[in-house]
Amino acid sequence: MNDVIIIGGSFAGLAAALQLGRARRKVTVLDTGLPRNRFAAHSHGLLGHDHKPPLDILAEARQQLTRYPTIRLVSARAESVSGSIDDFSVLTGDGQSLGARRLILSYGVVDKMLDVPGFADSWGTSIVPCPYCDGFEVAGQHWGLVWSGPQSHQSVRLFHDWTDTLTLFADGHNIPPDIRADLARRNIPVVEGRIVEIGHHKGHITTINLDTGPNVAVDILFAHPRNKPSASLHESLGLSTVDTPLGIVLKVDERRQTSMPGIYAAGDLTTPFLPSVTLASSQGAMAGIFAQQSMLV
Ligand SMILES: Cc1cc2nc3c(=O)[nH]c(=O)nc-3n(C[C@H](O)[C@H](O)[C@H](O)COP(=O)(O)OP(=O)(O)OC[C@H]3O[C@@H](n4cnc5c(N)ncnc54)[C@H](O)[C@@H]3O)c2cc1C
Q1: Residues 25, 106, 222, 138: what is their CA dihedral angle, to the nearest 10 degrees?
Q2: For a disulfide at 240, which of 149, 184, 223, 259, Cβ 3.0-4.6 Å?
Q3: What is the pTM of this model?
Q4: What is the pLDDT of residues 50-79, one digit of tens each?
Q5: What is the whole-number distance in angstroms between the Cα of residue 224 and the centre of ligand 1?
Q6: Which domains does the chain have, with CATH numbers?
Q7: Which residue has the least CA distance to atom 19 on ligand 1?
């Protein structure tokens, strides 16, 4: 029997495993190898790893975990989960049944792309979600922002620290009059019409093409597509969730425990806004530590 099974072995899950391995707890990490930022050439903002390919950071982390004899890293999908505290059971896609006293859910989220040609091809290269991740490299250039709700107004205020040239794409949404007035005051043009295509060359945007025309050239486009958890294990367990404008996240307490005793969660699966590798790693470390401390005799 494992002390802990970690479902999702990326930034949050591996950080949890590191703490548990150092506490000499028996841990199995299940992972399908699809971290959210795999589309990006470089990851930014993680101290000591700035401007490195995200998959290299994860490969180095996995390599470092081989020091710890109680950690087992397994390439497999967790298909189902059952049981309760001290006696959880996880069934994997390749038919293994594993037992554990505690679970950590860190299986992240999937971004739902805008369903127009060129969007998915450019995601992570010139269509990105977060200025802290990718803003510095394109500071001062012409930025576009796809309106996704009132939270986009906060993005407008935020982006001012990186560029004075911003165009907002309404993409068929109604932007409230008070926000329109503020945009006008800030000299930010609003382009009406629906986005029908992203013109690009190998993922580098050339134009945003609209059903109303004409096409608009930008250097980078920020977009916040709604996301959804990468797996539905929390649903079958009946865990409490919070619905946010960008998607559903799991509800956790200050010790990162979900609504079910013995199940902890960390990373993007629990982070409504501004997800980051740094945050996921710190939450993962906390989940590992609190799961370990919950098993002290
Ligand atoms: C385009 C883009 C660029 C970004 N750039 C940056 C950046 O520069 N800096 C930064 O700090 N953040 C960046 N982010 C955010 C960053 O990617 C996330 O915050 C981070 O990946 C969250 O880590 P996580 O461990 O919670 O989830 P993830 O990294 O998404 O990992 C979840 C893991 O769980 C696995 N998994 C899913 N389901 C199962 C299952 N059923 N069984 C087993 N395993 C499963 C997946 O394969 C994956 O490996 C970016 C995000 C995007 C979309």
Answers
A1: 10
A2: 259
A3: 0.96
A4: 999 999 999 999 999 999 999 999 999 999
A5: 15
A6: 2-111+226-293 (3.50.50.60), 119-222 (3.50.50.60)
A7: 276
